[in-house]
Amino acid sequence: MPGSRRRAGSATADYGAEVTAPSGPVPNPQRHPIYVCQRHPIDVCQRHPIDVCQRHPIYVCQRHNATALHFDLRLEIDGVLVSWAVPKGPSPDPGQKRLAVRTDDHDLAHATYEGAYERTGGKVGSVVVWDLGTFDRRPPRPGEPVDAGAALAAGHLVVDLHGQKLTGPFALTRTGPAGPKEQWILVKMRAAA
Predict the structure, then answer these.
(1) Measured between alpha carbons, how far is 85 from 61 in angstroms, rounded to an integer?
(2) What's the pTM?
(3) What are the C-alpha distances in Å from 174 to residues 147, 155, 156, 182, 188?
């Protein structure tokens, strides 16, 4: 998006302190479990253990300092992490709508992806797990079955997030045609009275 680029070392976000490009050595393999990220084979990323109840699907929100600082919202649907890039980050305020652009789906191991990596051109990027938890799918109307894949295809998905920072009902609504780089709106729903 024009005008949305921010320089590393000077970006701020709604929920974070100033973000600076990581410096220093790669984490010591004797002190941290590390793995090579499948998306960027040359990247060394740190993994954190995830303790999630197997009955509920995973929810993760990662702060990603790439070309522009943004947040990656990921929901486990049909065995993968369905992902959206949220430039301003999710808002806990029901009055704030946020743009969410669909990105590539990721495997479930990506839920704990965190660390610094080298982008094309030798520039440094970083990913930090900002919030992690589970979610429940909400039916479109009471009593109807919940099929997240069908809701995603239809362009409207409502979930109850159970994270440490984000909790409660959130809605994702597609604003244009299905296809690459779909634009969605992410909004916190008001609690039922």
Answers:
(1) 10
(2) 0.70
(3) 17, 5, 6, 7, 15
